Amino acid sequence: MRRTQQIKTPDKIIEFLGRENRIYPARNTMGYSVSALLGCPRKAFFQKTRTSFEKIDLTQVEDNIWRTTRGNFLHQITQAYSWNELEGKYTVSINGEDIPVFGRLDCYDPEEKNIIEFKTMDNVSKSTSEGLLPFDSHIKQIQIYGTIFENIIPVEKLTIVYLDMNDVVSFEIQKEDMSNWIISKVTAIENAIKSKEMPDGQVNSFCKLCNYQTTCSNNKNGIEKPLSVLEARRR
Question: What are the boundaries of each domain within the chain?
């Protein structure tokens, strides 16, 4: 009888998944991405203030990076449309300063004037039958895209498409002006930077892939302890 033994995933595969998952934080100090505004305000604070970040030991979170990187592969479905990965900029005035907010669309259908956002997850059919989809955060995200891009391209429809390895489920989302929400989020982070008062952390499942875990856990109202082993600290 043949005997096999489970081994660790080869290092080069893990490194590849980390690169595909953009595991290191962006250094855009000139403005904010939509994902930064939707995510943890403390992480956005760290990025804007150029806080030293840590290199994650990817072997400790390989399940997480595979799930998120898998989404990048499935996103190749955007090639079904001639317009994909469209970038846009939306400017807000905070304390007399113009601050850009950047958005990037998964894809846009010019015939339907439809912004389409793809989301990958496990058990799409089950989540749909249980009434969990579409997620509130995903609705807010595509509504923000609608606000950012409606002065750049015609926008009449918003669509979220959920995919897993077996199913595709789509939802049409109502348009909503998110201008005040954007201004409120940017103002809160900018005021925190100006006052040098770190905002509260938003603890969630993405903390395992965050490069600021130790710094966050050493300050109140963040994660209690680092959730992954850290190889080194980049200074």
Answer: 11-233
